[in-house]
Design brief:
This protein has 9 helices and 14 strands. With 308 residues, it is an alpha/beta fold. The strands form 3 sheets. The protein has an 8-stranded mixed beta sheet with strand order 4-1-9-10-11-12-13-14, sandwiched between helices. Helix 1 crosses helix 7, helix 5 packs across helix 6 and helix 7 packs antiparallel against helix 8.
Length: 308
Amino acid sequence: MDLICMGMALVDSIIKGFDPEPISASGYRAVSSTLSVGGEAVNEAMAAAKLGTSTGILCALGEDDAGDMVMGALGRCGVDTSLVLRSKEHPTPVTTMFVNDDGTRKSITNQAHRYNFHPEHYANLFTNAKAIILGSLFRAPFDDPEIILSVLRAAKEAGILVVADTKLPNFRVLSLEDIKEALPYVDYLTPNEDEAKYFTGKTEPEEMADVFLSYGIKNVVLKLGSKGCYFMNAKESFQLGALPIKAVDATGAGDNFVAGLTTELLHGCTPREAIRFANACGAICTTAVGASTALKNREQVLSMLGNE
């Protein structure tokens, strides 16, 4: 496998157009309710496989119906699931997502999201890849400094490209200082604007990127939503605008962005070329409900870019 994605796997229960006014003592209405597989590692792996990259996933699932649903979706997209860890003890997490008309959303997690499996125990399985994506720093299993350091050190000793996305902490709160020993092993970090503000204490893209680079991270890509994205490394910086699309649901857009970025880096593209491609992947994702619904294949992305 060229790419292995690591991190959270779950099922999203997506509620669109929720009306807070009850229609009975305990009844509410919504425009639609759908089930979709999700979790950073799942979203990224499915997107990368659709883009033509040989992709595997290292994640944990319960031996339950939700886990079966995730496995089925991964298989249909061509993701190698031989590294998936399944357990009777820990259920597959289910997240409830409330999606607004403008595509923004809020989510509800539960205790199942706290299960912290140990990807560092399987370094012999992922160090043959060309690249790994850490679904999200600061979320299980990457909310433990020792796990983060062990995985990243093993990857870099094997000469693997390391791409790490971020999420705001939920059950366990860590800061950049808490994982500073591991951060120099990260080749590309891809926080969104809110995450970057939270972790750096800064508000301007250049200032936020400077803080991340000061920890030894090689390249920083800030996902700025409707303002596009901002890139900085030791040699250059630039900003690319967002593509003109009508957003329906932003769920998974960042994960599709990261998958597109990594696949193009594996193809030998420059950061600017890879980020331009990733920008289109993220934009396409927002045009349908669900993290893995809209993106179909590489040709779709190239067609969008050709029509800019």
